[in-house]
Amino acid sequence: MKRYLLIGFITLPILLVLMPAALVYLFAPSHDSAAQPAAAVQGQDKPAMAGTAPSLSIKVYRTEKKVVETLPLETYIAGVVAAEMPAEFELEALKAQAMAARTYIVRRLKQGKFDDVPAGGQVLDTVQHQVYMDEAQRRERWGDQYEWKSKRIEQAVQATAGVVLTYQGEPIDATFFSTSNGFTENSDEYWERPIPYLKSVASPWDIESPRYEETVVKSTAELEKELGVKLAQEASSSGAWYRIESRTTGNRVGKISIGGKEFSGREFREKLNLNSSSFSLELRGNQVFITTKGYGHGVGMSQWGANGMAKSGKTAEQIVKHFYQGISLQEYSQILRA
Question: What is the pLDDT of residue 137?
Fold first, then answer.
């Protein structure tokens, strides 16, 4: 009996010490959980929050299926980031894309205008708004890379959960595009609508993009048909067959005169279906060589620029504040409550 009492006196203190530690170990969240990345815990990219944001559902019109799917906000954002930016991009670039995508849909909800979507929907899943891919589409596209790409996208989304980009307390028009020509564009020089936070800024990192420079070849007959002009033979033979009338702040074509007509750089790009309004022309016989720099409209955040900034050590917050001038980061629940 004395032996058992002695053992009891020895083991009881040990158990009292070990049991709490064992319980903590068993019920603590996994250290490598994608849902709890370090940035989310430390709040590096998130503003100070008063509390947890309420749940929000998004009604997405699936164009191919012709149905409306209702999704939790962050599930929708993950599908947009997966569709709009390569999962191979740097994590901070993916976070920046997540904030831009979330801002886009929160802005739509705030405005409450859905007349460009079939009844019951709030947003399309195409480039008309922002592209969205569901899980099945991602599995099909990514194949055996699905697991790691999904975890990476999810990490970026959760690290910025609830955060939107605002200017003077309102969600911004968070436009983005693939690749710049080295500079983004002032909004009023492409869309003729001045927006204070959409200003031309340098983006030298874009030179790494595979779409940075491309050349397309058209016959003079194709060029005339697409532009609705007639090139004067004497002008084309002398070399004075077109003239750049002006350039934009972002070094794109502002105005161009050709075949007796004047076009804006945007009009010229859209009529010829060019990658960019940053272009040069060269006539060789009856062929026109058109070399473009950049890919997209050039206004807002350059995705390849964001990736280059992330590679250089910039955070997601630094990235979005570079491409969207004078903005702030806010919790979306504060916006929709206002």
Answer: 97
What's the sign of the alpha-carbon dihedral 143, 148, 152, 157?
positive
Buried/exposed 10-21: b ≥16 CB within 10 Å, e otherwise: eeeeeeeeeeee
Between the two ends of the chain, the Cα-to-Cα distance in Å is 73
Please report the pLDDT score of residue 337 as a whole number: 78
- pLDDT at 235 (0 to 100): 53
As a whole number of angstroms, the distance between CA 34 and CA 13 comes to: 38
Query: Which residues in the chain come in under a pLDDT of 70?
Result: 1-54, 233-239, 338
For residue 312, the one-letter residue type is S
DSSP H/E element including 242 = strand 242-247
In whole angstroms, what is the distance from residue 196 CA to residue 219 CA?
41
* Three-state DSSP class for residue 106: helix
Distance CA 117, CA 68 (A): 10
Angle subtended at Cα 78 by Cα 75 and Cα 82, rounded to the nearest 5 degrees: 145
Q: Which of 237, 242, 240 shows the shortest CA–CA distance to 285?
A: 237
pTM of the model: 0.82
Q: Is 319 helix (H, G, I), strand (E, B) or coil?
A: helix
User: Residue 70: which H helix or E strand, with range?
Assistant: strand 67-72
- CA 180 – CA 209 distance, rounded (Å): 9
The candidate with the shortest Cα–Cα distance to 335, out of 212, 202, 174, is 174
Give, in order, the Cα–Cα distances in Å from 227 to each of 135, 165, 168, 178, 192.
42, 39, 42, 26, 21
Backbone angles phi, psi at 213, to 5 degrees: -140, 130
**What are residue 166's phi and psi, to 5 degrees?**
-130, 155
**CA dist list (Å): 65 to 16, 60, 119:** 60, 11, 14
pLDDT for the residue numbered 55: 78
